[in-house]
Amino acid sequence: MQARLENFLDGCGAAGIREVELRVPKLQEAHYHLSPKEIRTMLDRNGIQVTAINSLEDFGLVPDENLSILRREVETIAVYCESCSCSLVVAPVARWFDPNPDRQWLTSMTARRLRIIADILRQYGIEVGLEPIAYDCFTVWTLEHASEIIDSSGADNVSIVADVYNLARGESTIDSMRRLGSRISMIHVNDAPHTRFEHMDLVHDREFPGDGVLEPQKWVSAAIEGGFHGPLSIEIFPKTVWEMEKYEALELCKRKCRQFEDVLR
Questions:
Q1: 133 near 97, Cβ under 8 Å?
Q2: C-alpha distances in Å from residue 127, one per residue of 11, 16, 78, 117, 254
Q3: pLDDT number for residue 24
Q4: pLDDT value at 203 more than 90
Q5: pTM for this structure?
Q6: Higher pLDDT, 170 or 88
Q7: Between 2 and 83, where is the model more confident?
Q8: Mean pLDDT of the 40-54 span
Q9: 3-class secondary structure per residue, the chain
Q10: Is 156's pLDDT higher than 70?
Q11: First to last CA, the chain
């Protein structure tokens, strides 16, 4: 659903949705005409908690000469977090277009950049959620590689944000969800119509959890067995949902969330 922040929050309140993940562009737009106090008032009026802000994009390979830009961006996102009392920022791994990237260099570079953003956000009591993305143009595909980068960074306020669609598309396994469950702070739950991922669009070919073939409940259950106790966030982008009237879209999302929770029980 595409809507201004205030319309989205009022819609969530009317639909009985009490936890949300907010996008950085929407918060940026809102801060041009709403004060932090007004944003907090909207959240309180609708009984909503912001579980994560999504996202700090392409941080991992920022050149040394541009680190001041990265730092300013992180400071700005920290302000957004403070305005809505959020303590988790999702940080997807960077895109890279070299067909033969050097894994050791990518790991080291991403770890150093991760430490920079983690140190800034720690001052605000904010955690970084590193999200692997399993597409050719991204640098980190698996939970194991994300965990390796976190270890290399030495930062103590970094976790993993796991996305079922990306995990299934990449080389992560349900066993890896179990092994690394305690490192995962949030899971994006979604599904796919089939597993011929090379024929699917990165954004639009995602289904509600349970409507496809990926069996997301198995991935989530494995993470819980491994110590995961964070929120689940539906992350889908089909145009059919985006084009719905906002209350219809939010009611559908709430219903799908409840159906998935029932499967997990």
A1: no
A2: 28, 27, 10, 10, 26
A3: 97
A4: no
A5: 0.94
A6: 88
A7: 83
A8: 97
A9: CCCCHHHHHHHHHHHCCCEEEEEHHHHHHHHCCCCHHHHHHHHHHCCCEEEEEECCCCCCCCCHHHHHHHHHHHHHHHHHHHHCCCCEEEEECCECCCCCCCHHHHHHHHHHHHHHHHHHHHCCCCEEEEECCCCCCECCCCHHHHHHHHHHHCCCCEEEEEEHHHHHHCCCCHHHHHHCHHHEEEEEECECCCCCHHHCCCCCCCECCCCCCCCHHHHHHHHHHCCCCCCEEECCCCHHHHCCCHHHHHHHHHHHHHHHHHHHC
A10: yes
A11: 28
- The verdict on domain 5-264 having CATH code 3.20.20.150 is yes
What b/e readout covers 173-202, taking b as 16+ CB neighbours within 10 angstroms?
bbebbbbbbebbbbbbbbbbeeeebeebeb
How far is Cα 173 from Cα 66, in angstroms, rounded to an integer?
36
Q: Is the pLDDT of residue 93 over 70?
A: yes
Q: Distance between CA atoms of 195 and 173, rounded to whole angstroms?
A: 14
Q: What is the pLDDT of residue 2?
A: 67
Residue 1: predicted pLDDT:
56
Dig out the tokens for 219 from the structure. 């991935």
| CB burial readout 115-143, b (16+ within 10 A) else e | bbbbbbbeeeebbbbbbbbbeeebbbbbb
For residue 63 the two structure tokens come to 């050149």
- pLDDT at position 3, please? 80
